[in-house]
Every structure is written in C-alpha cells, then in structure tokens.
Amino acid sequence: MSRALHDLANGTLFGVALNYQGLLNQRIAEFEQAPYQKPPVKPVLFIKTPNTRNSHDGVVLHPHGERLQPGPALGVVIGKSASRVSVESALEHVAGYTIVNEFSLPEDSYYRPAVKAKCRDGFCALGPELVPHDQVANPHQLDLKLFVNGELRQQNSTTNFVRGIPQLIAEISEFMTLHEGDVLITGTPEGRVDVQPGDTVEVEISGLGRLVNHIVAE
Amino acid sequence: MSRALHDLANGTLFGVALNYQGLLNQRIAEFEQAPYQKPPVKPVLFIKTPNTRNSHDGVVLHPHGERLQPGPALGVVIGKSASRVSVESALEHVAGYTIVNEFSLPEDSYYRPAVKAKCRDGFCALGPELVPHDQVANPHQLDLKLFVNGELRQQNSTTNFVRGIPQLIAEISEFMTLHEGDVLITGTPEGRVDVQPGDTVEVEISGLGRLVNHIVAE
C-alpha cells in the first residue's frame, strides 16, 4: 500500500451491501418474505474489522472447505469528519478514492452480512493508491472490472449505484460520525465469482489503477 | 475511563448477541421460521465501531423519536493475540475484565444486529476500570445488575452464558485474529428496558465496580 493510502485510510472500513441496482433487483423477492417483508429503506451496512486489512500484492487465504468470492468495489476515503451532513455538502468530506477488494464467503441472505463471512484475516484489500477527489472527474461514472488470472469475470459501472456517494455519506452521518481516514466501501455488483487457491485476482477501476491479490490455500 | 483501561482496551469492540440462555430461549421460535429455519450454531457477532466508544460518567444521547435501551455486559479485554486457540488455552489471552454498557435501539430481529441500531456515536460505554484476569476468581460467576435512577431494573449472572469465555475466544479466533486491546462484549441478558432523557443508568458487576452514564435528549 502506498504511504499516502496507509496514512490517510487508517480508520473504520464501512461496507455498504446491495448498492448496485442489478443486485438489488435480484434480491427483491427475498426481501418481500418473512422476516422483513419489504426491501431495505436505508443503506445496509457492515463492518470490515481491522484484522481484514490487506494491501496491493497481498496474499488472501482461501479457507479450507469454504467458497471464497472477491468483491470489487470503489472505496471512498473520508478526509474530514462528517456528522449530519447534507447531500449537497457531502463531497467536501471526501479525501479521495481507492480500489477495494472486499472478500467474502458467499451468504444466502444479503440483508445483514455476517461478521464470520466478511471478517476473516486479510479479507479487505485496499490500494494501490489514494487518488485525490479533485483528480477524479466523476466518481459516479467509473468502470469497474474484475479479472481472475487475466480473464475478465465481472464488469459494472458506478453509474449503477443504488445510492450515490453524497447520499451514502448523508444517510450514514445522520446516525454516526464518519471520521477522517474512514473508508466507505460503496458496494460490490451482482455476479460475484468463486476463486481458488493459486488464482491471481485483479480489480481495475478507471483512473484508479489495478489492485492485485494472490489466493493461497489456507 | 482510567488510564489503564484506555491504553489496554483500545482495539476492536466485538459484540456477541444471544449469549444468555434466557434470551436465546425467548427467540427459539423466531429462528425456526424463514429465512433461517434453525437457531444459530456459531456465535452471532456484531461490531461496535470506534465512534461508539464512551466512558464512565459519559453522556449518551437519546435519539429523537426512537427508543433507547442500555445493554449491561461483561467486557473481556484481550491481552495477547489469539488465532485459532483452543478452549483450554483461551484464557491465557485475556488481560482482564471491565463493565460494558452496550446501548442499542431495539430491533425486531436479533439474528444479525444492524449497524444503525448499534453504532450511533457514544453507544458503547466501557469502564470504570480494567480488573486483571488474576484478580477475578471466576468470570462465569459474576452478578450483573442494571440500575435506572437507582432502581434495579435488570439482573442476571454470567453463569447463564450460552457460550463461556474460553469457547467464545476459541470459536471467534478460528476465523479471525483477536488482537491485544480488542474487547469481547459477552452479551446482554433478556429483559432490556427503555430509558429516557434525564435518566442515570448504572451497570454493576460483582468485583468490577459500577459504570455510570447519563441519558440526555439529542
């Protein structure tokens, strides 16, 4: 991880589930059943704990007897504390952007991701760089690609966010303070794939570079 | 918060849901319905993010238009990194114990506590002291009491844990490393009560003292 990224993205890692329209559409039927009976009305959050931090070129352990899925995502690094900020002023609280690969065990229910599926050691790679906010023309118009062993396996665009970055920051900061160094992981699109020991996994986001990780048997 | 507690309990705050037998029994019927159809087989974890940290004598804001419930709990402070430790050696990784008041908005579903209900600013008070492991005769035989404005409102004992401390450490460290300074919040018993602005809330655990907090309107 570059020095700037390490210094500037050292806070809490907040994941946002179900933030791609295609993924939400796939799940609508499930939400209409018990116990929820309606789709989520607010962002569904989860935490990647500090033990999950990993970096560009880092190794990710494939847990024995489990399935492992990479989670390509745009990371938004907070630059200035945000408490109850408006949608209009939310982007003033952003330092910049980075690539996140938010590894998970697949889960049947998307409603509230389980700590056990999300928080194994090394399950959240960030990097390679922090690109400052003013160097990204439009964070809601970035192509996001996942390659496994050089082959394109997942592709989407941040134009398909359910909630854009200002709305996420406004809705989350309504009930909790976001601090400098916190990272919002803005969601992984539908179509997650399984990876195996020996695979090389790369996430590319336009203008942010490519984040590489290596899957190794536990 | 005492200096020792501040220095020694500065890591991730892991909550364990449903760890009192009486609470689990109340919820069994719910788990047998969709989508889960069985009670949880592993500890149900949640995270109290760093913005929730609060201390002895600290103010807790009562969110406007919501219900607020204190969550008396025994806190176990990790003293030495734990990765895949056995039940037998788990207690070697414990530095000591403290009182936790894990405030929440009440939730309909206990299965996976929502970040929004658990992680408002100041929603996790710790203190007043860290009592070293060797000064607590038996952490599975402690009385736990909640007082609101001096009146006893909730009472239980750590003898009623679903999972004891060694089992929690062993099962959690199976998939994630617990680090020095991390805190396991071992669960809140059944019978949570609502508190109101103006209330003084105290949690007493035998041998660990009394943790006092003040509820103030937002």
Automatic annotation (TrEMBL), chains A, B:
Q: What domain of life?
A: Bacteria
Q: Name one Pfam family in it.
A: FAA_hydrolase
Query: Where are the annotated coiled coils located?
Result: none
Q: Which organism is it from?
A: Pseudomonas gingeri
The family classification in the record reads: Belongs to the hydratase/decarboxylase family.
Q: What's the protein called, per UniProt? A: Fumarylacetoacetate hydrolase family protein
Q: Does the keyword Transmembrane apply?
A: no
* One GO MF term attached to the UniProt entry: metal ion binding
Q: Which UniProt keywords apply?
A: Hydrolase, Metal-binding
Annotated Fumarylacetoacetase-like C-terminal domain residues: 13-216
Q: Does the keyword Cell inner membrane apply?
A: no
Record-linked Gene3D superfamilies: Fumarylacetoacetase-like, C-terminal domain
